[in-house]
Structures are given as C-alpha cells and as structure tokens.
Amino acid sequence: MFYRHSFDKLIYPSLAFFILLAVSYHSKYRLRSEMPETFFSDHADNQNQRRKASLEKRIAWAYWESAQMNIQWEYPHGSTLPADPPPEFRVEASALGPDASDPVLRALYWHRLQEVWPLPEAWKQKYEFSLDWAGDPIVSASQWLKDRVDRWFTIR
C-alpha cells in the first residue's frame, strides 16, 4: 500500500532531476585540435622543399580546421564519409594563395581525411551535459540502445 509522507514533495522531484541528469550526461566525440601526423607528411630535404612544405603544412592545417568546423557536425564519429568532398570542405585561397583552392589538392586532403576519420587518435572523447535527446526522444533512445549494444558486443 502507498502511504503519503510529508517528504514526498522533495523525493519525487529530486528523483526526476537525477534521472534527467543521468540521461543527459553522456560522451561526445570531437575531432582533436591537433592535426594527426598521417594527415600531413613532411618529406622536405633542402631549403626550397622546406619552404614549400611549410606552405603545404599551412594548407593541411586549414583543411583540418575545415573538417573540425564543418565536417564533424555533418558526419559524426563512427559515420562513413562520402567519396566526394562536400562543398563545406574548403579553404580560403585569399589567405593561403591560389594553390590552396586547387581541386586536386582538395581531393587529396579529403582522401587523407577519409583515412584518418576512423582512427581513434583523431578523436577525443568528452563527457558533457546535453538535452539533444529531448528533440526526438524515439530516435535518441534507439541511438542510445544501438551504442550500448555495439559497446557490449564489440571485441576490442
């Protein structure tokens, strides 16, 4: 039998708050701020090649920042990147010179991003409070369940 007590007014809201807190505090994956070594490889031997490699490294950093600012939000951790680079994956040619916006160079760095994307060293895991699940609770619950099943049954 259920008996009402004077402290019920405190217990139920507190319980609801802690459940909300537990559901809303979860891990998120973000691209690391430092560019992985495999995203840019430096093979400069002489002074002229080092100068050119310096420009190429700045271009690589610009593409990595484009991936951080634009791509990781559209294609989150665990998803597959498309074969062709999306329009958001670009750098400003005015800041780095006309070679930076070369379609061949853009395709090269997109291919390198595809290689780096699934690697754990490209990502950092961060726990944060988020109410994203409240927008569409059914999709969020199914994604949560999928993540848990993947974690339980994936061999590491």
Task: Describe the model.
There is one protein chain. The chain is mainly alpha-helical and 156 residues long. It has a domain at 43-146. Helices cover 51% and strands 9% of the residues. It has helices spanning 8-24, 47-74, 93-96, 103-116, 137-153; strands spanning 25-31, 123-129. The chain has a two-stranded antiparallel ribbon. Helix 2 crosses helix 4. The model has no long low-confidence stretch (mean pLDDT 82).
Could you give the topology of this structure?
Blueprint: H1 8-24, E1 25-31, H2 47-74, H3 93-96, H4 103-116, E2 123-129, H5 137-153
Helix pairs in contact: 2-4
Question: What's the helix count?
Answer: 5
Quaternary organization = single chain
What percentage of the residues does DSSP assign to strands (E)?
A: 5-15%
DSSP summary, beta strand count? 2
Judged by helices, strands and strand pairing, the structural class is: mainly alpha
Give the proportion of residues in helices: 40-55%
Shape descriptor reads: elongated
Question: On the 0-100 scale, what is the average pLDDT?
Answer: 82
Largest sheet: 2 strands, antiparallel
Q: Report Rg.
A: 23 Å
Helix-strand sequence: HEHHHEH
**N→C terminal distance:** 48 Å
- In terms of per-residue confidence, which ranges show pLDDT below 50 for 5 or more consecutive residues? none
Order of strands side by side in the largest beta sheet?
A: 1-2
What's a concise summary of this model?
This protein is mostly helical and 156 residues long. Helices cover 51% and strands 9% of the residues.
What are the key terms here?
single chain; two-stranded antiparallel sheet; 156 residues; 2 strands
